[in-house]
What we know:
By secondary structure, this protein is an alpha+beta fold. The protein contains 15 helices and twelve strands. Residues 1-19 and 446-459 have low confidence and may be disordered.
Amino acid sequence: MLLSQNRTLVRIMRFERTVFCMKFDFSKEPRRDVLCIDVKSFYASVECVERGLDSLKTMLIVMSGADNAGGLVLAASPMAKKVLGISNVTRKDEMPDHPDLLIVPPRMNLYMKRNSEINNLLKRFVADEDHSVFSVDESFIDITASLKYFNCDTAYRLAKIIQRVIYNHMGLYVTIGIGDNPMLAKLALDNEAKNTPGFVAEWRYENVEEKVWALSPITEFCGIGKRMAARLKMSGIESIYDLAHADPYILKQRFGVMGLQLHAHSWGIDRSFLGEKRQVAKEKSFGNSQVLPRDYARRDQIELVLKELSDQLATRLRNANCQTECVSIFVGYSKGQVDGLGRSGWRKQLKIARSNNTKVLTEHVLKLFRENYVPEIDIRNLGVSFGKLVWATTLQLDIFSPPEEQIINTQLDFLIDKIRRKFGFKSLIHASSLLDGATAVNRSGLVGGHAGGNVGLGG
């Protein structure tokens, strides 16, 4: 009976999809000349240029932790990807041997410097409000107002000029997607420009049916991951074409505002504008995760990393002038390992009395870990996050601990924060961070997400 009902429901969903189709009038949509610009294999390309090598012809990889078997590839040159099949998540022990392959350590500060140089070049072509940095190797610019200034009759022509300028100044190859809006430009970049000889592709509203609807699998589309793809499939939607021809009212009912947004995107509609001023929302949570340098089997070493993560996140809470009411941790097992429940890892959370005290939060994190720890399984990924944030400037005292002790601990935390901001993260560390298995000291000199949560802590 239940199976019959489910089949009927699927038929109804598919019927709803086929009988309703809302078409967008592109003549009423904003048309801009937006470029999405990406440096090919950025880290690897920078390393090639620094060595006087052609980044398209050289086999080079940037590897973190190359001195151990668990080293991780952060970037691979196009030739390394093509010849050896190396991806950005390949481990050292999975690397094929090749006499021409260069393996180099990451230099994150250098990459950030080169990123700044690239964006300074882009600012020669557009006003500041028409320029937006998307990631360390990707930026958007709106050249609508710049075409006449540079005597260009098409966006394609100016895109080729930008390519040449960046190459002449820095020796780096860039790929460029062109679109009527940022989303179409991004889709053109990811799905065509990177595989086109001239590294430039242009997707307009007129190309939606031919190019956007043809994207496959559905996870290649912006905003659709594996989880959303599975939810869409349950509603009979297995392609971008299906999404474009689904009833938007039903999409909103089942997926909320995200459903309406995905429906509009499937038609190439993106009304965001680079020049508009946006309110930056406050953080909803603070989190940090690490891929460990090797498999961790010892519980004391795992707890050591969790302590470091808790310390870093507590500092970020205090810098943001807020407290947390929810602690969560993530544990990912080593590749191929599962526990008795068939899991490759687990995630747990705990509601707590609001706090930003390092000692208190660390105790909660360790308690959560110890209650759920599975012995005799190696661990490779760890993550800690603090959510349900409360912004406050007052001290929240715990009735179960002496107030004097809490005040002293809070004052100590703020003193440590002050010293680290002035003299650097490594100026004052816990003695345990010098033990085998600790990661905070080694990661403190890196940049961005690679810094293991030390960014903004005076690293």
